[in-house]
Amino acid sequence: MEKIVGIKFKNGCKVYYFAPGKDTYRKGMDVIVETARGLEFATVVIPLAEVEDDKIVSPLKPIVRIATDRDRETVRRNEERKEDAIRLVREKAEKCGLVMKIVDCEFAFDGSKVTFYFTADGRVDFRELVKELSSAFRLRIELRQIGIRDEIKMIGGIAPCGRECCCSSCMPDFKKVSIKMAKNQGLSLNPGKISGLCGRLMCCLSYENDYYAEACKKVPKLGSEVDTPEGKGHVVSVNMLKMEVKVKIEQKDAVTYRDFPADKIKFRRGGPAPVSNEEEQVDEEELKKLLD
Prior knowledge:
Elements: E1 2-8, E2 16-18, E3 30-35, E4 38-51, E5 63-66, H1 69-95, E6 101-107, E7 113-119, H2 127-137, E8 140-145, H3 148-155, H4 166-169, H5 179-184, H6 191-194, H7 209-215, E9 225-228, E10 231-239, E11 244-251, E12 254-261, H8 284-289
Parallel strand pairs: 7-8
Antiparallel strand pairs: 1-2, 1-4, 3-4, 3-5, 6-7, 9-10, 10-11, 11-12
């Protein structure tokens, strides 16, 4: 076990472990820490704790000191500079004929460097742009190309569910998501309904995937023939939360629909996961883009 202090940078979601210094820390306290990029401003979220050795990367970087009012003023000034800096970079990029979208910028805490984050359809030769920016800012310039998911994580937004995007509010790292997860949950495969603001598969598809993947093994697929206490029928819908199956039973001239607990019907197991019974046209090309 090793003692650590957990901190977060800016509005990030990921918690990083640092070695505690000689000071006493409390949650919400601002501190200055040493990172691979130099000194940075951060906020304490775990004052002091012990974690297993296999959960940390040794050696831990130290917390240098508790932040002062002067440090907070430095951070505030850097934030105020961002808007003008982004505007200037956009103008310079247009002047250089570069097709790129400037998403955000970050001034180093010690004032030695400024990093600009951008998106573009392909590779961008920004060497001339860097020269222009170096002359304008008199700082070391770094241009970093990011993906569409990283863009949404930086700028945030309101997801289709009405809440703030998971990637920018509560998710430390991007999770692997797949079309199979949507199938397991019986969701429509319409790209417009399973994609987030980034145009990729919604990260939240992975939250309950373990449950649905296991539940799929215990229910029949849609349209399959099953044996029920009231006779043979065909599956119309499946409720994997209640573990109930709606079955259409045809007997002579009568057609009835009955709900049965999944464990009360007999069916051939091992088939493909059930999918939504909603009849919608799926654009295969759009669906492939969600996985890029």
